[in-house]
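Anyone? Bumping this.
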Amino acid sequence: MNKALRSPITYFLFLLPALVLFIAFFIYPVIVAIYYSFTNWNGFANYKFIGFDNYIRVMSKADFWASVKNNGFFILFSCFVQVPLIIFFSLLISNVKRLRGLYKTAVFMPSVMSTAVIGILWGFIYDPDVGLLNKILGKLGIDPIMWLSDEKWAMISILITNAWQWTGFYIVMVLAAILSIPKELDEAAMIDGATGIQRALKITVPLIMPIVSVVIMLSIAGAMKAADIIIVMTKGGPAGSTDVMTTYMMKHSIASFKYGYGYSISVLIFIFTLLITLAYQFLIARRAERIEY
Amino acid sequence: MKKGLVLLTTLLFIATTALTGCGGGAKESGSSNGTTTPETKTDTKTETSSEPFDLKLRHTQVGESKKNRFNILQDVVKKTEGEIAGLSVKLDGVESEVNRKEKLRAEMTNGDPPDIFDAFGSPDVKLYAENGLVADIAPILDELGIKDDFLSHTQWEKDGKIYGLPVGASIEGYFYNKEYFEKNKIEIPKTLAELEAIAEKVKQDGKIPFAIASKDAWVPLMTTNNLWTYYAGADVTKGFAKGETKWNDPKMIEAFAKHADWLKKGYFKQGELGLEYATQRNQIINEEAIMMYDGSWATSVFADKAQSGKMHGKVGFFMMPPLNAGDGYSIMFDSNNGYAFSQKAIDDPKKREAIKAFIKNLYNEEMQLRGLKEDGVIPSMKVEQAKLNETAKGNDLLEAILAQMGEVKYTWPAFDALVQADVNTALSQQIQKMISGQATPQQVGDEVQKVQDEANAAE
């Protein structure tokens, strides 16, 4: 038995199913995407190779770069607004003595709801005439804001909704990390006279940095592939001002019968995501210290 | 021995996994092997066989405003199931814009469209037909003897073959609050200047002149399309794809500028770019707006008390007037939306028979008149005028629409039936930019023309 398990063939055979699935659902589509991105394929038959024409055309479109910028907003909002909030609320909930389970469930709830439901729900909140937000602003004597119709507000409205949907999911992850920190560390600091804020900032936060790093990583990946919330809430509008790369790709490939062109955008999304995650890994994540208690 | 056992178990596991993965494919290939070509029809066998089989039908009759259309479809499906032994029709409802621009296009690329599907004849179905994905149903129409009963199949024809059937026809124009017009002694406008004067008066009265919801760009483009046919000619749109006319022609720019001028003057609801099409009618129903440019299909909403509330029976219709009195009305009239049928389904004799029964049950005078009465859809088949008038009796709005159709001088199909899909995408983007103040009329024309040139060069 041991001899059999030492044989590389056995391991290879065990790996084979996963490998087949990985090749079929990841490697093959990537190769196909790269292949077609150099063609003028319309989604059906007859195509010819046109070199880098699709890439040149995409890169020359101001609307494409506007969509890249919107992906950037997603990342920045996630890292600099959402993550601090996640840490803040996780610290609050971790210190709650009663009904912690209720709080955990309450914050986690949006992440199990369908994006379509959330989009419609927030659509009502943002409604310019009868929406909750404008009603509140009205009480304060502020003119109504066209949240989803005005290009100045539409993107931030989506970012807030997206953050509302996913913050709870990450809070539960960070909370698990906080609760796994040995109590002795906190107690020792308390005996030494550290205040609650000092203990949170000097002990808890540094100890949960590995999981925060994962949260940032997942947020970046989520930001790069964001599409559903935008489609439900604005369809990329008004006038393309909330388009991200994926929604831009859908409009200009499937809806326009230009699949070759669409594939070139998908390859660019792949490259950009790879570069950002690699940069994050090498520049930030790797520097994070390994935590050992 | 032990090593052999482990290897054998591993191989068995892999083989099982692989075979499980292949299961679906094997079933599919079996069924496709069992099909025969239309030339070897087995009609008698099909009629007597009660072996169950499914037919997937993609429709777009979703939502309250389309409930009458959905009822008609359900009755047709029920009747068809009753006539074809073993048939079970699986209804698959998808929102129209999503079906047209995303779902169906992706299914076509995969070569696996539903058996029967809601589609737009031009340019969509013609492109699918070029690639052998949609069936020529001219032989079925011949068998049923209804080939010449349609007003027009032009938008569904290619090289003498017919690739689908329009479910109805439609025109576009202004629905308006009759009570408001009467109360304020406003006459139906005979020129565009008169229409603008009404809009100004309504605005001064604190109401919104034109209801609008432009989240989907085709909604404001209905207005722009009508404007450019008055400024640049009824046939101008036909020339874009042929390179004979240009989007940035001065006359086209004048039309875009007129739309932009109305935007600037505040004739449309503020924040229109964030509003869904369905909410446009609400602006009329809650009397926030006085006029609304829409298709004749909106009649069903105003004819239904449950949907139109206190505005029931109080909505009238007039066509967009010409620039000068006496120039003649120029309106959108087309029958580009309907049902098409997958080639794979037609190649299966049982499905072909079911599709034939579906066509027989949907495309007949009774259903066309029912569509007119219950849903306000103008028949796509030839029906005597007297029968149309009789059917419309009691529905003032419908009577007004039918009566005004007689005054039309020029008709044209909607722009999206005449230009390439990528031009439609560019125009949609640009008109929304113009609405949000990010593009001037000239920029709209220039940007769309650039994409038009690329699309023409690619053909």
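Late reply, but here is one note on the structure posted above: Chain A has a mean pLDDT of 89.
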